[in-house]
Design a protein that fits this description.
CATH superfamily: Penicillin V Acylase, Chain A
Order of helices and strands: HHEEEEEEEEEHHEEEEEHEEHHEEEE
Distance between the termini: 51 Å
CATH topology: Penicillin V Acylase, Chain A
Number of domains: 1
Shape: globular
Strand content: 25-35%
Helix content: 10-25%
Strand order of the largest sheet: 13-12-11-8-7-6-3-20
Radius of gyration: 21 Å
Length: 359
């Protein structure tokens, strides 16, 4: 497997986390009870080396440690899985295994805190960017993850880097958020099916109460002394829905948009619906930095968006370069015999355009 210098590449990106990250996740269920998990991967500090990864059963990995070497926890895959990764194939950001368990990483700066790395715990130390791979390799249910979490020590590869938190979802639609605060792992049932970044998940849930006045549909007319106040158009019930790109605002916006969007008949239609909802969270490059201070000129800060049909174990994605949706059908993969492999999300970094038919 090709290796890159973790400290030189990944941590240079992490240094920009407070200005550059804006990932948004939603979970939807169709009328036939299919479960779809979707999210954006936003990073405006630099263009990531984005790839998809196929991992067979029996594939063994070791966690990286602060010294940059793979000398930490060793784990082999009881389940084959597929996912989207950044920088190195070990660093899966969002993936699903053949048992239908999904795991995803979201940044959680300034609020999480792992245990300090202890050399004596080297053999059970697990880098936070490899937790998704560990979960997908070893577990079929959320309860199995909860039972095993205290058997490992989740660490930063660089103690100065940002912390992260995780979304874990099973085929029934049950979802939990894992956050490590003061070195203690905490699991929260996520019935709303939304996740962004800091502050903590419980804070975001409490913050929803600030928007108790919002509702789908119209508002007014309202008597206002001698006059009536009338809405300028449809959708006035959502007046006050926050539109900025901070994590609290995105959490509120995602919660209302996914909750009131019409349930679709099946998994495929729900996947397409999830892409439409997440279009509202695409981050135009430059809006997260002062004028003239954006560090690059990529097509967007939202580098890719992924939507996974857990019921049928199919992963769909598009990227900032090409919004044509691509698909990984996991049920067609022989995880017992396929070779470990990874490929760039974009073979060519250009948008697929088709000519319209003109008779």
């Amino acid at each position: 497997m090709k290796r890159i210098n973790l400290c030189a590449v990944l941590l240079s990106c992490l240094a920009l986390v407070n200005n550059a990250d804006a990932c948004t996740g939603i979970t939807l269920k169709s009328k036939d009870n299919s479960v779809v998990v979707a999210r954006t991967m936003d990073w405006s500090g630099a263009e990531n080396n984005n790839m998809y990864v196929i991992v067979p059963r029996g594939f063994s990995q070791r966690s990286m440690l602060p010294n940059g070497k793979s000398e930490g926890l060793e784990y082999s895959a009881l389940y084959g899985y597929a996912g989207l990764a950044v920088e190195q194939p070990e660093f899966i950001i969002d993936g699903t295994n053949e048992a239908g368990l999904s795991a995803a990483l979201f940044y959680f700066p300034n609020y999480g805190e792992y245990e300090p790395y202890n050399e004596a715990n080297k053999d059970i130390s697990l880098a936070d960017f490899q937790v998704v791979s560990w979960i997908l390799s070893r577990f079929a249910t959320i309860d199995q993850v909860k039972q095993a979490i205290n058997d490992v020590r989740i660490i930063n590869i660089d103690p100065s880097a940002s912390t992260v938190h995780w979304r874990i979802t099973d085929m029934t639609g049950r979802q939990v958020v894992l956050e490590i605060v003061n070195g203690v792992p905490n699991f929260y049932e996520n019935e709303i099916g939304v996740l962004t970044n800091s502050p903590g998940f419980q804070w975001h849930m409490t913050n929803l109460d600030n928007y108790v006045n919002l509702k789908p549909g119209g508002a007014g007319p309202t008597e206002f002394g001698p006059i009536d106040l009338r809405a300028f158009g449809s959708g006035a019930g959502f007046l006050g829905l926050p539109g900025d790109f901070t994590p609290p605002s995105r959490f509120v916006r995602a919660a209302f948009l996914k909750t009131y969007s019409l349930p679709q008949q099946n998994a495929y239609d729900t996947v397409m619906q999830s892409f439409h909802i997440l279009n509202n969270f695409d981050v135009p490059l430059g809006v997260q930095f002062p004028v003239g201070k954006a560090p690059n000129n990529m097509p967007a800060a939202t580098q890719w968006t992924v939507s996974t049909d857990l019921t049928n174990r199919t992963i769909y994605y598009h990227t900032m370069y090409n919004r044509t949706i691509r698909r990984i059908e996991m049920d067609k993969i022989d995880f017992a015999n396929i070779q470990f492999q990874y490929h760039p999300l974009d073979e060519e970094k250009t948008q697929t355009i088709m000519n319209a038919i003109i008779d």
